[in-house]
Amino acid sequence: MNIQELVIAEIKKAVKKNIDAGIFPQAEIPAIKLEVPPQKEYGDFATNIAMQSARIFHMAPKKIAEELIKQMDHDYLAKVEIAGPGFINFYLRSDIIYKELADVVKKGNHYGTLTDNGIKVQVEYVSANPTGPLHVGHGRGAAFGSALVNLLKAAGYQVESEYYINDAGKQIDNLAASVNARYLELLGKKADFPENGYHGHDIIETAQRIIDKFGDKYLNMADDERISLFKEVALKEKLAALREDLSAFNVHFDVWFSERTLHPDAVKSACEILLKNKAMYEKDGAKWLRSTDYGDDKDRVVIRDNGVPTYLAADIAYHKNKYERGFDKLINIWGADHHGYVCRVKAAIDALGFDSSKLEVLLLQMVSLYRNGELVKMSKRTGQSVTLAELIEEVGTDAARYFFIMRSLDSQLDFDLDLAKSESNENPVYYIQYAYARICSIFRQLAEAGIVYEGPANLELLTDETEIALIKKILSYPDEIRSAAKDYAPHRIANFVHELAADFHSFYNKCRIIGVDAPLAQSRLILCEATRNVIHHALDILGVSAPEKM
């Protein structure tokens, strides 16, 4: 149990003692949260539990705070104070933080990884149509989704990541027809380009690769046969390209789920259940979901009057499949343009007899790229949307991932390309990685000087304010993991490790390590090691590398 958990447990115990003594009425205890005050004079931790429970216990917040403090065990606390309208501020004993720091070092690279909580979670993200390259919007979803998966795993969840491949339907037909048209054009034949075809340069490249490999072998084939063949060739190539781009971006999936596997049986089965539950009806030859019964603004077509399923039909069958796999929580990361789609999918889930509250849909806001202060609208290379591969080529995987993750998913992101490439303290990625590399350099210098790092030391020698601040920041890491995971907020880990790097740089600039008394040097090396482990752990969550040299 870390120090935050100890304080929270003590608050719960104090509440229960007051209830048992009849001072507080019987009631459900609200969730207890600890915060690190913005100014150190307000203590190491603070809670607003007294104000949260004022209505529950029918008592003034200050009176609640007083009664709680009376029942608390102060052995690990220097003092506890009431501030403002009822905040409770906790001040830890200095020897407690030294003991905690020693435990941090013992845990090594595992510090920050919480125990398995037994909760099974599925995270589905990216799931872009395999009809062209990933663009920067997909990149934000990929970075956020993979970081969320890493964060949930660190917080003790059992997580499975999934990519839903939209490999059925009209968009794949249009892909095949587009490749076919480019194939004919490249061979000097006239071709009618499909009205809803894909005009990207990658389609020309796919057609050219077919020609490079097979020449005009398919030229005299009937159009429908050639298009059918190109459908499989193009789909295979596009999926391979997606996997390659994602792998270069440190994104890997446990499951690649094909939409094709849902047709026709799974879609038919889902529709039969909806009809049986009277959640679907027929009108004008089509089958409609009664989504208005579940809060949607209108009912939605599931099966068209020609018998062809809509996209919603496949999504209904897909989510039925997800629920049947036994996850405790489902998380979908969708683009902001899918906002109106959430209600109808949840309506279908409830209509199938499942609990739609198990599904959390996180909406991804837009990304705008800036270079030299100017909005970048198009790729210089293709004249079309900037692809994820082009972004990685320009700024690197580490910078791209960090910049995508460092803001909350529900806020629009202005991505400064110049800042992402700069080697300066203003670039948060460089600043964090430099802190890590600096620590590695310290240990290399010690080895070169013949100074042995011995491990255990007298940590009570760490009394400088920068040392204490750094220790306390390190000790708050597990609680940050827990809170960030609960809120699906990997950006908090990005902010945390940036603040940790700042605390380390402050410590390094003030406190010498080489050239001081051996006992003090050993103590400071312990602090360096703990800092290095936490930075590495946090960067692992973000999918960003931790270079030993820069």
Automatic annotation (TrEMBL):
A Pfam entry, by short name: Arg_tRNA_synt_N
GO molecular function: arginine-tRNA ligase activity; ATP binding
Keywords in alphabetical order: Aminoacyl-tRNA synthetase, ATP-binding, Cytoplasm, Ligase, Nucleotide-binding, Protein biosynthesis
Primary subcellular site in the record, as a coarse category: cytoplasm
Domain DALR anticodon binding: 432-550
Top EC class, one word: ligase
EC number(s) from the headed UniProt entry: 6.1.1.19
Record-annotated Arginyl tRNA synthetase N-terminal domain positions: 1-92
Subunit structure: Monomer.
Family the UniProt entry places it in: Belongs to the class-I aminoacyl-tRNA synthetase family.
Entry protein name: Arginine--tRNA ligase
Protein's gene: argS
